[in-house]
Specification:
single chain; mainly alpha; methyltransferase activity; Phopholipid_MeTrfase; transmembrane; transmembrane helix; transferase
C-alpha cells in the first residue's frame, strides 16, 4: 500500500511543481533578462524537488494525507492567484521594475503575496511527506528566499507612486498569511 501512497503523493507534488514552472515561463512578466535571484530560486527549487522525488521513492511518512492536503491547497492558491492576475501578471521575483498597478482581488484580498503562499504550502507538503528532519531544509531555505523576494517587492511599492495605496493595503492583508480580521470582514 505504501507504493500507492508514494505514487499519489509524488504525482500531486509533480503537478504543483509543473504548474509553478509553467507560471515562471508563461504567466509572470519579465522586464528583461531573468533576474539573478530568480535564476537562483529556480535552480534551487529544481534541485530540492529532485531530492524530494528521490526521497519520496523510498517511502512517505505516515502523514502523507496531510502532505496531499498541503499540495492541494498550494495548487488551489496558485490557481486563484493566476486567475486574479491574468490581465495584469506580476513580474518575476527579484525584478527591479517600478510597480504601476496594485492587485487586490481574489487571494490578493487576503495576502499580498499569494504566489509565495502557494510555494510555501508546497514546500511544507514536501517536508511532511518525507520522513526525518532533512525534509525541513527545503521549506526553510525556500521560505528565506521568498521572504527576501517579497521584502524587495514591498520596498518597490513603498518607493513608487502607489506607496500610499500600498500602505493601506498592507494594513488589511498579511504578507503570506491572511490577517484574521480580514477573513472575518471578507
Amino acid at each position: 500500500m505504501h507504493i500507492v501512497y508514494n505514487a499519489i503523493t509524488g504525482f500531486d507534488a509533480t503537478i504543483c511543481f509543473a504548474a509553478f514552472s509553467w507560471g515562471v515561463k508563461k504567466h509572470f512578466r519579465s522586464t528583461g533578462a531573468m533576474p539573478l535571484g530568480m535564476k537562483v530560486t529556480s535552480l534551487l527549487s529544481l534541485v530540492l524537488f529532485a531530492a524530494f522525488v528521490w526521497r519520496i521513492a523510498q517511502g512517505t511518512s505516515g502523514l502523507w494525507l496531510v502532505a496531499l492536503g498541503l499540495f492541494t491547497a498550494s495548487l488551489a492558491v496558485f490557481a486563484a492567484a493566476v486567475a486574479a492576475s491574468h490581465r495584469t501578471p506580476p513580474t518575476l521575483a527579484f525584478d527591479t521594475d517600478a510597480p504601476n498597478f496594485l492587485l487586490q482581488d481574489g487571494p490578493y484580498r487576503y495576502v499580498r503575496h499569494p504566489f509565495y503562499l502557494a510555494y510555501v504550502l508546497f514546500w511544507l507538503g514536501t517536508a511532511v511527506a518525507v520522513q526525518g528532519m532533512l525534509g525541513w531544509i527545503a521549506p526553510a531555505v525556500m521560505m528565506a528566499l521568498y521572504i527576501e523576494a517579497a521584502s524587495r517587492e514591498e520596498r518597490k511599492f513603498a518607493n513608487s507612486s502607489l506607496a500610499d495605496a500600498y500602505k493601506a493595503y498592507r494594513a488589511r492583508a498579511g504578507m503570506f498569511w491572511p490577517r484574521p480580521i480580514a477573513l472575518l470582514v471578507g
